[in-house]
Amino acid sequence: MEYRILGPLEVIADDGTPVPLAGVRERTLLASLLLQTNHVVSTDRLIDVLWGEKPPPSASNGLQVHVSKLRRKLEAASAISPIRTEHPGYVLRTLPGELDAERFDELVRSAADMGSDKAITRLKEALSLWRGEVLSGLAPEVFLAESARLEELRLVATERKIEAELTLGRHHELVAELELRASTHPLRERLQGQLMVALYRCGRQADALAAYRRTRTTLAEQLGIDPSVSLQELEVAILNHALGVPESAPIDSRLSASAGGPGTLTFLFTDIEGSTAILRRLGDRYAELLTAHHEIIRNSLAAHNGTEVVTAGDGFFATFASPRACVAAAVEMQRAVAAAPWPAGEVVRVRMGIHTGEASEESTGLVGLDVHKAARIAAVGHGGQVLVSSATAAIVRDALPEDCHLRDLGSHRLKDLGQPEQLFQLDADGLEVDFPPLRSLDNPALPNNLPAQPASFVGRDVEVAEVRRLVGSARLITLTGAGGCGKTRLGL
After folding, report:
1. Quick one: DSSP state of residue 441?
2. Rounded to the nearest 5°, which phi and psi values hold at 421?
């Protein structure tokens, strides 16, 4: 049996023939089970995916009917029953190699330890499994988080393949591909740097510099930031005809000619919620609390090979070479904080944010947009809560301890960052799991300061209808009129 989700959903029977799938709901059901293959998907989750927020009273029975039909089809195609009923829902059991997404991941991982030639062959084999967008043809919003994770892995594999090909001097044949990919992903600095190197090595210095200027303009207009230090250094090297590295060096060396070049790390930001109020209550004893808090954080950092970068008051900024080690350290910290006997019976709750990305080591410390993103993630959380970015979640989700799991909190806008970020909450046995809504921008779940309506609104049916019509097509509507004419009530 072969299951394909890297493109339109397909199932291939043991004899090589396609298994017919009937209707959107059956296909959506199978896709939901495949995205969590070998893990139980709850009945509630499946009903929500198939029928949305307002399922009919018969949804539970309807789900059983759909599962029964799908189970019979898969049994006929493979002579076994891959769909099993396990509390609190259903699980689709697959063998190694049956799911194309798992084969893709394994091929990409195995290429990491190979030389350039073999790595290129292996990465091309992995990328050939893709037939289009993940589960194309099905509602994208239902599978947004998992689709984004797989698409990110696809891009990373593509960048690694290009890197290996540049190492072997194949810049001439790469230019067309790089121009297309750099245009499609204008914010990925690694692709832009690879394009600049390829163009320069083809004797197209002016075009390489033009590619840098486009990237600088795009980053400034969309994110309000400058290119990374490594990309700026690459521009200077091209201007001076001095990339300074041999043809055989990896692209990462080209982008990091100095020791201050970018490296991939996992960032952890922590701080005590309500620390000022605690200081007022404890007075001189606050120093005792802070000492105990710092000892907990530093003990966990040492136990999991974390590096303390900056400490400011009750806040820590630390880095880890391993995302899994960072997650383990965060859980250990939270458990230790929850169990510690704090002065005067005080309750201490620490919020944490985790993100994996690139940063450059400069004289002022670690610098990079991903550092700021990690800090912004921590800032929208609450005491006792551990928030994890989609980049980190994609790496650790299949290697979490049995007593830990990630809860998808949806997409959130973070301060000063142009694109929304899919955020996850790290839940672990013995830790608090229920928190208020995240303090992200435009979060509709947050309370606001609009006044409550004291009475019914009469005599403005025409105006209300017009406002409703405009809201459907515009992001901002301005109501004008004399003071006291009812603009606020109409807006409410």
Report:
1. B
2. -120, 130
Tally the residues of the chain.
492
Its domain, for residue 424, covers 264-428
Per-position b or e across 467-478, b if 16+ CB within 10 A of its CB: eeeeeeeeeeee
Q: Give the chain's domain count.
A: 4
Query: Which residue, of 410, 428, 446, is where some domain finishes?
Result: 428
Q: Where are the alpha helices (DSSP H) in 251-348?
A: 251-255, 275-282, 286-303, 323-339
Please indicate, yes or no, whether residues 126 and 5 belong to a single structural domain of this protein.
yes
- Give residue 109's pLDDT: 92
Beta bridge partners of 42: 89
Q: Which residue has the tokens 């303009």?
A: 217
Report the Cα 187 to chain-centroid distance in Å: 15
pTM: 0.50
pLDDT at 444 over 80: no
Q: How confident is the model at residue 253 (pLDDT cuts 50, 70, 90)?
A: very low
Q: Based on the fold, state whether residues 106 and 180 are members of the same structural domain.
A: no
Note whether residue 151 is domain-resident.
no
Please tell me whether residues 298 and 378 are part of one structural domain: yes
Secondary structure class of 41 (helix, strand, coil): strand
Residue 180 parent element (H or E): helix 171-184
